[in-house]
Amino acid sequence: MASLFKEIPSMSTLLSAYASISTLSMLIRTILNEMIPKRMRDFINSKFSDFFSSYFSSDFTFIIEDRWQAVHSETFRAIEVYLPTKIGPSTRSLLLGNNDSNNITAPPKPGIPVDTKVIDDFQGMRLEWTLREKEAKKYYFRNKRFFELNCRKKDRERVVQSYLPYISSTAESILSKRETLNLYTYDHEGSMWESTVFKHPASFETLAMDPDLKDSIIRDLDLFLQRKKYFQSVGRAWKRGYLLYGPPGTGKSTLVAAIANYLRFHIYDLQLQGVRNDSDLRRILTSTTNRSILLIEDIDCSTKSSRSRTHTRIPNDDDNDDDDRDQGNNKISFDPGVTLSGLLNFIDGLWSSCGDERIIIFTTNYKEKLDPALLRPGRMDVHIYMGHCTPAGFKKLADTYLGIKDHPLFKCTEELIQSVAITPAEVAQQLMKCEDAQLALESLMEFINAKENQIKETEAKKDEEEVIKQEIVVLRKDVKLGEKQDDEIEKRCVYLT
Ligand SMILES: Nc1ncnc2c1ncn2[C@@H]1O[C@H](COP(=O)(O)OP(=O)(O)OP(=O)(O)O)[C@@H](O)[C@H]1O
């Protein structure tokens, strides 16, 4: 024991050792400060602190941005759907809103505000979520948003393997049961989709169309939903394209609404005329979500010929918009609009593989005006003709609008409907006029008779015009002949003189 005490240095020895170490360290620091440039010193400092903080810290942070590799991130979207279900007492603020203009008294829905923490527990892990926002460089894009997920470093693997897949499947089941559907329209000035609650009463039940055609559409939609694995196995994107064509007022938009209600899919209604170019189109389309319908109405008036591409600069998708702004004056003299090839690229080109479970619907009043490239087999999977009202369609409309399945005036009305081309919209308009079935049907018959007379009058007028045209031609010929004869006489006179 005594020998142990003997080995412990005295206080004065310890103090002098400390003094010499600190002097030495000061000396080294002064030499290093003199010899090593400040930027290199900062670099070494930061590396040291990074190393120590990562080595000793027990936390780990995941960043999930709203876009992933130039397209909308499905992981981000799933978290957006899932997280509001985890709002609890520890959440300090909450976003509330109701976008249902049909029901302003509906309880508001919760959302996650920026910079607010939401705590979740999963299989014994504590998970801390925060939604962040940072200003976008691009002046017409909305701010970039991303989720920060903080967890224990040791849970990192389990978060990736179990927790994030769990969030995706929960979000999927929430979305499949969604009560309200949204109708999105693209705001070109704000460069973002704007949504409103979609409450259209149309259903396959109320749709007046050929029953066999209706059944085949329903079967096709059912099959599409069930065939995720099939689409993967044949190497095709899980998409289905419908082309609805026919005269105005025959129910093309109503069919789109019925499909959305049947599938419980949101609708993205895009007006191609406002899209600046193909690159813009790619951005817009990749920011739509899965389980949705992309609707492009009046497609015959929407695209430019692919030849116009040669006259314009087509900006690259990775183009920085700041660059666009700087160079725009030099390179883009006008907005080229969307080309057919740009659109086709999204239907069955490379970009078609972006996103799953999508329905693309084009409508047109003039199928014959469409570019054959769009109609080529495999482009639009199903072509549906929406035609004039048939007797069966009329019965369906009478049932929907008047609540009657039969009536003494039915036979007569059906005969009239077969003799005149009348649209379901026109029939519906007449049937809506009155609640009394007798009066409503009489009004419809009157309307059809008036239309028939009008058609006859127009045709008679056309015939009359045709006769007048032919008479004018004959007269002109006569006049020319007369002029020729006059010329001849004149010539002869000259010769004689
Ligand atoms: N086949 C139909 N079944 C039931 N209702 C219909 C049908 N067709 C038209 N209607 C009624 O007529 C209205 C107009 O129809 P809709 O807008 O769907 O026609 P459209 O073919 O899309 O016309 P457009 O080509 O002008 O866009 C609808 O609100 C609906 O009430």
From TrEMBL:
InterPro entries: AAA+_ATPase (IPR003593), AAA_N_dom (IPR025753), At3g28540-like_C (IPR058017), ATPase_AAA_core (IPR003959), ATPase_AAA_CS (IPR003960), Mitochondrial_chaperone_BCS1 (IPR050747), P-loop_NTPase (IPR027417). GO terms for biological process: response to stress. Residues 441-468 form a coiled coil. Residues 238-390 form the AAA+ ATPase domain. One of its GO terms (molecular function) is ATP binding. Keywords: ATP-binding, Coiled coil, Hydrolase, Magnesium, Nucleotide-binding. Gene3D superfamilies: 6.10.280.40, P-loop containing nucleotide triphosphate hydrolases. Signal peptide: none annotated. It catalyses: ATP + H2O = ADP + phosphate + H(+). Residues 306-333 are annotated as: Disordered. The keyword Repeat does not apply. SMART domains: AAA. PROSITE patterns: AAA. It comes from the Eukaryota. Its cofactor is Mg(2+). Belongs to the AAA ATPase family. BCS1 subfamily. This is AAA+ ATPase domain-containing protein.
